[in-house]
Amino acid sequence: MSSPRKVSSSAQSYAGDPRKGGYSTESVRTIIKEELEGKLEFDRPNVLHRLGIQDVDDELVNRIGHDLENDESFVESKMMLNKLFNLSGNDGENATGEKKNLEDKMMEPLSQIFDRVVQLAVADDNGRGRRYERKWLANADQPLQGEGDTFSFSEIKPDFTLCDEFREIISGKGKKRYEVLWRHRAAFIELKATSAQGPKPVKQGNTVKAIVSQAADYARLHLTCRPFQLFSIGLLIFGKQFCVAIFDKDGVQFSPIHDLWDNLDVLIRIIRRMTHEMSPVDFGQDPNVNILPNNHPNSVTCRNIATALAKGNTDLINEITNYPTYSINFCNIKYYTIGLPVWTSLSLLGRGTSIWRVSASPTESFATGIFLILKTAWRQSKRPSESAIMQRIKGSHDGLVQYSQGSDVFFPSFSLIAPPKITTANLRNQNRHVEGDTTILHRLIFKTVGRPIWEFDSYLEFFLAIKAALNAHKFLADQNILHRDISAGNVLLSSNPNAPDSQKGFLTDLEFARIDDGTLETKNIIPVPSLFNPNRVREMTVPTTRTHTTWTPPPRGAVLTLHGKLQFDRTNVLSRLCIQDVDDVVVRQCQNRLNMDEIFLKSKSKLDRLHMPEEKLEEDSDSNEANKKERERQLTEQLENVFNRICQFTTETKTRQYNRRWVSTAAKKLRGEKNTPTNKSSLILCEEYKDIPSKKRRKELEILWRHRMSFVKLKPTAAQGPKSTEEDTVTEIVAEAAEYARAHLSLPFQLFSIGLFIFGKQFCVAIFDKDGVQFSSIHDLWDNLDVLIRIIRRMTHEMSPVDFGQDPNVNILPNNHPNSVTCRNIATALAKGNTDLINEITNYPTYSINFCNIKYYTIGLPVWTSLSLLGRGTSIWRVSASPTESFATGIFLILKTAWRQSKRPSESAIMQRIKGSHDGLVQYSQGSDVFFPSSSHISPPKVTTANLRNQNRHVEGDTTILHRLIFKTVGRPIWEFDSYLEFFLAIKAALNAHKFLADQNILHRDISAGNVLLSSNPNAPDSQKGFLTDLEFARIDDGTLETKSIIPVSSLFNPNRVREMTVPTTRTHTTWTPPPRGAVLTGTIQFMALELVRSLSGGSQPIHRIYHDVESFIWVTYYGILRRIGYVGRNLTGEAISAGLRNISRGAFKELFNHVDPKRIIKERLLPIPSILFNDQETLWPFPIQQFFRDVRRLVHTMRGEESGYGRIMHEELLVVLDKVIASLRQTS
């Protein structure tokens, strides 16, 4: 159901008021019931979590509950409600007149209860008062004032409204009443007299009960009248029970049902959050939108423009005067609304379209009279977006709306990772990045401003406008674009009275258009920048629709844990911090000063009171989570004082090398940047920060992730320390700290992470690296205050970034360094005008990496970083050894850094073993284990976890080694192919490369969709359309692995000549070692051959053979096709993708690749190809692809008929199938 309305038109139609030409309330709700069938989800715990009720202080809730039980007004109201509940009975769904009367009587006692909760919840024990002054108003006898665009809704009102703003008025009878605008309603309540009238149907099915359809009707109007509202929250009370409902464009989610009195604490939390704490965004406002203050210069200017457009209409001018101006951040431009909306939709589950006049520069618009049109609407994820369709149009036409820009809308983000889109799925799931069919918010900016076709001033103007729009329709049809939604709302008159004849009218709204030639290309507003064309100077390729997804292998299945990786009481930990280097005299002076310092002594006293005795540990269990968090917050506050008093101690003889500061994350803002997680620790040590004003008029800090040097984890008792009484148990403090360290180690070129643990009155230092965690001995805060002073002083005053874990071969260039400027210029050029990305690049440092005696410089942000704690920690960067040359040619390199196990050959050793080159294999430039910098002629030690832990270094034995490689080939994911032909040529190139390696007795053993890439060069020859990469797990079967180690040698003095030095060089050591054998199983489980997957579920483990990898290529092929067709939102070149084909692709993709459990994968693999591809919709696939699926099915079926029961498919058999499909595709193209 969709009942659009046009505010600026004199002919208006409103749903909800039959006197104005709309539907009756009864008919509207009948339609709503039909819409909501199958779209109701009950007992969803995420509903109350989205309200943040868990953040309400437990002690405050307990206190309010206690006060209410002793409050005369509450007790009387409760008794009155119980009487009404007894009178109502519980005999059915239908609301009789008697029950309606009881509902009206329920309002007064409920109002009393709500008011008492609000009054008792003025401030919690932490002094947190009301952020918002909201009030629940019973609507039985309150006029709900409308505006020009909502006046007819005043007769439709919920039982209670939560109001942001309201005005008291006194009626003629002296009774206090309130005047409330629709847009000032934050939430609502719907009442029913009995629990039987609640939202859940008695029997499972599609029944939509009256309370749901009524509440949905209010939500529908709420979503319309509160501008830029994404969802609507309602509290449903039925008899003695209640629940919360959230209405959005995909339906309704309901919380579990609670009892008013038995679960009074839940009701208190809900009321407290709604009236005191929840922001407009929490209530559903678009997070990209803000309301400007009335006196804001842009607000004043926009009102002046709107007033001028009103042309003396007094009523409209009065509304404009009181109507807010909204700022919308879209595509990194701020647009400001001018006056009231031009058009808004009244649908609940429809597109929810709204049209506004906007300007990016109100002052300029006021001077010129030129502004823009902003359209916002929800779209289905399975359909191409309107902006994608607009981008597909070649050329322009006078009779077609002039498109400026458009995109799906994203959540605001400060990280390097592509932010999630605003979808109903992501709104419902706070972790976001939810995939699958959903509804997506979409925005467009148009340059053409029109007016309704029925407002023509002459017949000539009208027919010229119709002709212009018809010509535009033909212009589109000639490009195989069919509009499919011609209506009076989509053919508009020009707003320019002096427009030429060909521009008297125009066609708009191509959202439902169909493109019949299959060449729809969706350009997203946040792409990974396109690459320079290596064949032409300063020419770039077309940008792709991805962000930082190059070289993205799927997870490898095995979850790495800390069990067996913890080492306690290690004396080397504090030695690595060099606390012994702190002057003893300084330590004594600081300790004496602290013992006389009032702030320190006061914090010490508070800490002693807060530290819990062991017998009260049970009170701090998970069942009392809020109390635990509050205690930790108070501990953090006092420790921050202690640490900073130590930091502030100065002496005349010692100066600070670094100006760092300990910051409590509970009280300060921690701002991230893209590609950085949001984990928080109790205290963090900051390298750089800046004070920013907050809304609460207190100083807050803006801190970037890469400026965080170290962290503190707190627990109230000594029993909660890192050492467990049970062997090989990872305690809570270690697990929480490891999560933070994992995020910290994902920062650029970080080798280890240092954390300070404080538990009760005890403390220790922990160092996290790729082999696990080492802990220092445990000390007492006050008995060993000297040790704490040494640690704090070293960390804040003296330790260098390398001491804190930065790779010693890496430096951060100053922003004004010539190479830094050039690398930023390259990255900015690659950003293709993406303002958000350019701003990040401007503030992001350039790193210089000294590797094999060559300095490489990073270009922009990392392409990929791993978030693993104990894994390989892979990071991928664009780099250049000569930024000036790269800027001129557009050619750069790929730098890969990863940790490897010492017992395995390195990836560079394997690459060096390859004889010759192959078009389908990644082009290797150089690689080596990483060495510590050295000024000595002695071979420097390697950067290993063992050598990092032991300051003498040169430690031998099993360890983890840092390894680096430089590649010349730049690729993109296999599932981003533009045509089937490109895809199969890429697969063939990679398979031929695999055969090329196998012929040299090198078996890849990790064939996956992340290791078979498409070329980034669109003009690459067929043999180079794709390539194989990532040979880290390859096995060499000829028994002699030749390893060349490149060791940097510094310049030396010539012994025969004074002060003459040799040129810096490298020394190459070559060794031959037999490769390690054994039953180590490698690979990504979703792509493993069936025989290998079966071994993971308890079968005998076979030796990894060539045919296992070849079978993995088949699964990579399925993965690439199904992901591209099912999930990449653009058509193929020359081939449209039907909705049916997208659906069956998604179904097959989920069958095959959404599992990591070996038994589930085996079940799916028992069929050679998912049956969904061969149902009655098989013909939706192009014929060559149908034939390919059949050929592979026959091939696998034949091979599995052998005695082994497994498909031993070799290169030759699969190459025959690939050649056949390639030939067929060439014939049909």
From TrEMBL:
Gene Ontology molecular function: ATP binding; protein kinase activity
UniProt xrefs under PROSITE patterns: PROTEIN_KINASE_DOM, PROTEIN_KINASE_TYR
SUPFAM superfamilies in the record: Protein kinase-like (PK-like)
Domain of life from the UniProt record: Eukaryota
Gene3D superfamilies assigned: Transferase(Phosphotransferase) domain 1
Residue ranges of domain Protein kinase in the record: 864-1189
Spans annotated as Disordered: 1-26, 611-633
Alphabetical list of Pfam families matching this protein: Pkinase_fungal
Amino acid composition bias (Polar residues), ranges on this chain: 1-13
Signal peptide annotation: none
Name of the protein: Protein kinase domain-containing protein
